[in-house]
Amino acid sequence: MKILAQAAVAAGLLALGACTNTPAENAAQNVEMNAENTADVLDEQADNAATDAGEAALDNQAAEVRAEGENTADAIEANDTGH
């Protein structure tokens, strides 16, 4: 439920911030927000993992998802010709 609330708040903030952003900036924000939400779910799963190895694997996966989301968002913004 906590993640759902965060997603709702994020969607609201994106809607407010979308007024001055280019479509590419909006897409980049969406990519990064989706990656962050996915990573948050992985973090929650890591907290509930049965073993230390399972927790570490999920934590690593969450970090990779965050990094990939950030890299993808950066690439979208770098290719933005809307400015």
Explain what the structure shows.
By secondary structure, the chain is mainly α. The chain has one domain. Helices cover 82% and strands 0% of the residues. The chain has helices at residues 2-17, 23-47, 52-78. The termini are far apart.
What structural keywords apply?
0% strand, 3 helices, 83 residues, mainly alpha
In short:
The protein is mostly helical and 83 residues long. The protein has three helices and no strands. It has one domain (2-78).
Task: Report the end-to-end length measured between terminal Cα atoms.
Answer: 38 Å
Strand content: under 5%
Rg computed from alpha carbons, rounded to a whole number of angstroms = 15 Å
What sort of overall outline do the alpha carbons produce when their principal axes are compared? elongated
Indicate how many domains the architecture comprises: 1
Strand-helix topology:
Layout: H1 2-17, H2 23-47, H3 52-78
Helix pairs in contact: 1-2, 2-3
